[in-house]
């Protein structure tokens, strides 16, 4: 056997190299770098391992009863935050495994580069290795290295079928353009050099008889799965290479008080005692002595009754997201009912009060029932993830699991802050939505949205329904202009505010709340914006700004705009927000439904208030 070549080092390179460490914020482990995602650390690339490999011994536990029941878990855990003394941490695995060397142009598995211990560099020329820019994934979440050998030998059928030729692969860039045509792959077996052009075609890999191998590299010791999905070429950092499926819920009474949080560990035992007040009283007395906290039998009975009521509620929505729709409706009802600060203690996570001054000043705008949400908690849990397809493009998108075996917890984060809730007069809203011109404009958005969903869906029968109607688009656009107004007048960064829409045939409200876990907007400033006098000024100013856009008349006269044409009069100069603040990725917007158009001002819901 030929011995491996001697390693050559750069002059002055240390003999010992300590491993480099990367770090991300805890919130990013839910939204950006969750399980199965690919993260770049310096010049290396890794995939975040499954939750069954995480060390969470010191990770805080998060409880949100309503969301946990819907997701089928007992609790949530905040992703670990490691330091030099902590044993907690999130495990990663090197991915992709094919690398190239910018010095000698070698393209091969990372293990064949004969790298020095603790380094990711070429053992021949001591250059740092570059992870493959391309990977292969399918809509069922499977992912693996791009089949460079088959791609390079595709015109040599004998070598392409066997995958063996005895040569060594090379990758270089011609530098002529930034396109795929300039990325050239060759082999020392003598085949003609080929480019990566065409690798992203939908049928590019299947034409080479490359099929999905069913690999799940984020799960340790996971067996390969039988998969009939057509694999696709993706860039390693592409947004569709990993799409989180995040579910959220607000903490609302009765689950928002200190009783509910303290009783989460004992909830199974209490559920078995439901209806037996004396037994519950005995159990709570023992628990009171143990935890030095005065538990109320009445409050516990109310919690059990609330859970029983939720279980017995009829399910009017037969869709796959009916449980999450029910969560929204519960929140909407609680935001309307409110909860006075005098009725809560310092541990309560929900305080929602009507403003002190009368809200009659808002009547010309059709705004009713403003509420000041002085204390608010939102839990965002990473349920699963998808690749290639997203929930916006496919109703039955495959949700890749976060662990090999089922776990009784999910990674999550919580945001504690404040917000402003307001509703629109439903009678006035219904009268406005029945207008022929308004309905036609909303139908145009809906048609474009359905067309976009159909174009992106693999199966025409699985195209989801569009939520776009006049009511939803109006509430959504109103939320955007208010966030923009408060970012200009109230001093809030727009990315620090987040919308939560309550829009269907039985709901017509919006909640604008703090979107980050830092101090931006969490000291009462956002609640102050909800006082009727100040809210009236903000509404008036926001609607005046919406009357004119620097891109007009092109913006207001647009027949379609945005991705897939699902916006009408909406652009970055008027109503678009940072995407972290928007629930619909800056889609389904039209400021003409707020203020009308020059040709037809009557379609604007707020036209009377601006006269």
Written overview of the protein:
The protein is an alpha+beta fold and 611 residues long. Helices cover 26% and strands 18% of the residues. It contains 16 helices and 20 strands. The strands form 5 sheets. Strands 3, 4, 15, 16, 17, 18, 19 and 20 form an 8-stranded mixed β-sheet that branches. Strands 1-2-5 form a 3-stranded antiparallel β-sheet, with no helix packed on it. Helix 13 crosses helix 15. The longest helix has 21 residues.
H/I helix tally? 16
- Described by its quaternary structure, the protein is single chain
Which regions are unreliable across 5 or more consecutive residues at pLDDT < 50?
Answer: 1-20, 316-320
The global form is globular
Overall SS class: alpha+beta
- Calculate the mean pLDDT score and round it: 86
Distance between the termini: 89 Å
Summarize the biggest pleated sheet. 8 strands, mixed
Percent strand equals 15-25%
Rg over C-alpha atoms, rounded to the nearest angstrom: 28 Å
- What fraction, in percent, of the residue positions are helical? 25-40%
**What is the number of strand segments?**
20
Characterize this entry briefly.
The chain has 611 residues and is of the alpha+beta class. It has 16 helices and 20 strands. The chain has helices spanning 28-31, 65-71, 148-152, 157-162, 204-207, 258-262, 267-272, 277-291, 297-312, 322-337, 426-433, 436-456, 470-489, 525-528, 532-546, 592-595; strands spanning 38-41, 44-48, 61-62, 75-77, 92-94, 98-100, 107-109, 130-131, 134-137, 143-145, 169-173, 183-187, 194-195, 232-235, 243-250, 351-353, 367-386, 409-424, 497-504, 507-514.
